[in-house]
Amino acid sequence: MAGNSKEQLLSVRVYNTLQSVGCPLVDGLYLREPDSVHELLCSPSLHRTDILKWICASICPSLKEKFSTIKATQNEDLVQELARFGFEMMLCKANDQDLIKGLAPPLQQLRFLEQLLMVIQADSSINFRQNSSSCDDNVRNDDLLQELMFQDHLPDMDVLLNPVCNPWPAHIREHLIRTQSTHKKTNGKQHSKPGDIINRSDQHSRLGSHGEESLTEAMALLQSTQSTLVELHNECEFLQSHSSGSAAVLSPCALKVAISDMSQLMTAFGHIYKTDFKAYCQRSPPVLSSGAQVFQSVHQLLHTCNTELEALMQLYETSSSLTQTVRQLQTEEQYWSKGKKCTLPERMEELKNRYVAFLSLYQSKDQGLSRNLQPSAWI
User: Residue 341: helix, strand or coil by DSSP?
Assistant: First the structure.
């Protein structure tokens, strides 16, 4: 019962919204009972389809031309077009044809219609505000023009359109001229032009001693400010346009845009962190099982075994290199003493034979022969 009452209340609300937005398909209907309204909005019918067409065309006026090209017999094409529009509005799936035909659950249909009508209400309120603001601006502009063009304000308008700069009234200028001429006569100086007298007297009256001091202080402050700005400009490297490329990249406008983009990215990241990542980041670290030490010891043993195998491989390579070097010495012929070319084994055999002959001669105790033996004879 609660579900039925909720559906009925929602159907009545959708029906009232259709009347408030000016749907012509519900003007001639005088439905009083909630069941009748529920049957109209949630049951498959041609009238319901026409209402849905009117709502979609009100949101997107370009759909009127598409609907006009679809014939009455092409009902499936119309359903696909409405489903596609609902999918573009992110209110339903692309192939949700049961929702368009009126075969989906009533609550889902009513929520779909309510969301579409909310878009129409938002657009109408925006248009109303724009029209009202434009009307108010027009009224204010008309009132302002009428006020400015009033008969009493015409002299002020003439003064504004034709401004004249007269810093001193006529009687004050005459007094200044007389004072200046008297001062010139007492000092024995020549008379100057009236225009120069007026300008000098005006300047003297405007500035005076206090004005000159204020002007000096202002000039000193301006000069110090300018020097400070020059120092700041020299410190800010990005303001010095040494090259067109660097000036375009590091201009203040580019930095402002970069800061704005960074602020938006930080805001988006903060939102995603709070909604998605925060729960995972606050989890406690996983507890390692007891078999972790076994795996660690096995890993260390395997690493030690690999190290020993590498050492054996290096020893094997060294042994092979030495064997090859010895083989080359034994097989290659080289020049020895007295310009004789022979291999190492042959030279060793020759030396052995000479050593044996030397021993035999030494043992025979033949002093004469031993005295004649010289090292050069057997080496």
Answer: strand
